Amino acid sequence: MTVTLDKILTARQQWALEYLSKVSPVALSQTTDEGFDMVVSYAKEFGISGFDKARNSLKRVLLQLADIRLVGVEKTWFSQTYYPDCGPSHCNEYHIESRGRRAAVSHDTY
User: Fold this and answer.
1) Where are the domains positioned within the chain?
2) CA–CA separation, 75 vs 25, rounded Å?
3) C-alpha–C-alpha distance, residues 65 and 83, integer Å
4) Would you place residue 12 in the very low, low, confident or very high pLDDT band (cuts 50, 70, 90)?
């Protein structure tokens, strides 16, 4: 079953979906191997220098994908805010939704 969406995914959005479809969930933190590897891979793919700059760019991409329900974001307990770096305790942990997995495979639009 394909996902029908309104716009074409950007290269960064498609990359993030494909990456998360292989390694999910991921917390974008220097304290987690998966998150560190994802940020470094993203930086290499799109020519971004500096870990913090790449992480912030990737967060923006993932939050865009969360807005259209292709990616889910775990927040901290009883919090309405996203915290930038609170470690591997499911805070700011991004995971691909089933809808996002289908979009990553089929390269559909959103």
Assistant:
1) 11-106
2) 13
3) 18
4) very high
